[in-house]
């Protein structure tokens, strides 16, 4: 299917696509550091603008189960997560391990069958951003609890250094930098969010295609959730820092992604799309992943809150309703399977990703909060409750206090096939722990604008 930019269509990772290594955001047992593009001419100092302040988040009713789980996971990361040998661009910088064995934390960074010294310095700054975000949310929810202040101060320098000139088209990075900078009153993180948005527009936005995508690849390509989040980031940053051309670019980007990447029959997003030389788009990967739906819906909700474009809210509701009513949802055991191929109708049901549950929970929770504020009907409330329970009890390993990258459909430790992973995957990943804490803690907020 090839569709020209502006054409109107009825509303409707890392693992297999090597060509998407720059733009993939899906968590993987083989996570690696992604090198940014060369720095732009704009310096971080030039980006030091106050911008529009973020409203203070409002705390809802706290959950003793979520609070205890969060504390246990954060303590686990404090004790076992830091890797003094982590390397960045050939230099030893320190940082978080990618993973460690559940019951033997001395076994770390297992990225293939049998861990060895080759992986000891492997490092992914994104997981540190997730970690700082979990800490920032905990501090905001529990302002009287000072027990993790030292962890925040330890993590902050890494985040500031890693994202000082972020230049990869992943829009969620912008929102996490902005949120954490606001929650922690850290102007440097807010400035780094501004510079990331500058780079989205300067280096990755194509006015011919009307969207942000990986222009370094031939043909151009985008991951649907990234394209939507980059567009939402441009709308937010454009309004926040008075850059109207960014707002226009963001609105165009969302419109073009919806017109191509949303399947008109199922109302679910495809995973990846090529952008051809003439600016037209072609669906590359017909898989509908819960992570793509969840993260994409969150971007649409952000865009709606900023523009009040009813179309964005309508699509968000359609996607959520479709996802939780589809075969992706496991009616027997609960939780969401990995993917549904919208071309072949084949359901990938051998495992369930932690990240799929977390992003879907965030999207559903935020949608229902917004609908409540608008006085409109909420949807799939029982699925929201079920996802919280599934994450808190089924995905959570309560003996050793952590989360795995993925689990079997009945929530047992997953064993990857020979040559495709690390074998018996009883390794906690720092990304899974960070995303799980983010999703669960977000349900404790009555409002969280970013």
UniProtKB/TrEMBL annotation:
Q: List this protein's GO terms for biological process.
A: carbohydrate metabolic process
Which InterPro entries does the protein's record reference?
6-hairpin_glycosidase_sf, 6hp_glycosidase-like_sf
Region of interest called Disordered, as start-end residue ranges on this chain? 30-57
| Protein name, per record | D-glucuronyl C5-epimerase C-terminal domain-containing protein
Q: What is the lineage of its organism?
A: Bacteria, Bacillati, Chloroflexota, Ktedonobacteria, Ktedonobacterales
């Amino acid at each position: 299917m090839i569709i020209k930019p502006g054409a109107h269509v009825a509303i409707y990772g890392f693992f297999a696509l090597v060509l998407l290594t720059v733009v993939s955001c899906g968590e993987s047992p083989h996570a690696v550091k992604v090198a940014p593009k060369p720095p732009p001419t704009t310096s971080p100092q030039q980006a030091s603008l106050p911008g529009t302040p973020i409203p203070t988040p409002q705390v809802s009713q706290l959950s003793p189960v979520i609070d205890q789980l969060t504390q246990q996971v954060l303590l686990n990361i404090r004790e076992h997560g830091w890797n003094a040998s982590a390397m960045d661009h050939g230099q030893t910088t320190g940082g978080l391990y990618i993973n460690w064995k559940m019951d033997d934390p001395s076994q770390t960074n297992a990225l293939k069958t049998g861990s060895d010294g080759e992986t000891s310095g492997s490092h992914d700054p994104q997981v540190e951003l997730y970690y700082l975000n979990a800490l920032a949310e905990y501090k905001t929810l529990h302002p009287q609890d000072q027990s993790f202040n030292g962890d925040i101060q330890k993590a902050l320098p890494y985040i500031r250094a890693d994202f000082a000139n972020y230049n990869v088209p992943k829009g969620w990075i912008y929102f996490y930098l902005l949120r954490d900078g606001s929650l922690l009153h850290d102007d440097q993180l807010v400035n780094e969010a501004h510079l990331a948005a500058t780079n989205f527009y300067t280096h990755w936005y194509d006015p011919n295609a009307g969207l942000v995508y990986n222009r370094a690849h031939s043909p151009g390509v985008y991951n649907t959730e990234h394209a939507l989040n980059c567009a939402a980031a441009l709308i937010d940053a454009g309004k926040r820092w008075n850059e109207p051309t960014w707002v226009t670019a963001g609105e165009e980007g969302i419109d073009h992604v919806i017109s191509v990447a949303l399947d008109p029959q199922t109302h679910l997003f495809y995973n990846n799309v090529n952008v051809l030389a003439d600016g037209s788009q072609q669906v590359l990967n017909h898989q509908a992943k819960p992570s793509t739906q969840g993260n994409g819906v969150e971007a649409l909700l952000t865009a709606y809150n900023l523009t009040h474009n009813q179309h964005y809210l309508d699509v968000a509701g359609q996607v959520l309703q479709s996802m939780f009513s589809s075969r992706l949802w496991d009616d027997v055991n609960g939780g969401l399977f990995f993917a549904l191929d919208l071309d072949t109708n084949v359901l990938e049901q051998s495992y369930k990703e932690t990240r799929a549950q977390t992003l879907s929970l965030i999207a559903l929770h935020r949608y229902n909060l917004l609908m409540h504020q608008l006085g409109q009907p909420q949807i799939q409330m029982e699925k929201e409750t079920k996802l919280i329970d599934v994450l808190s009890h089924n995905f959570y390993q309560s003996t050793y206090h952590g989360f795995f990258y993925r689990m079997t459909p009945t929530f047992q430790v997953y064993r990857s096939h020979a040559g495709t992973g690390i074998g018996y995957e009883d390794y906690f990943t720092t990304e899974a722990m960070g995303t799980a804490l983010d999703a669960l803690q977000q349900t404790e907020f009555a409002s969280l604008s970013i």
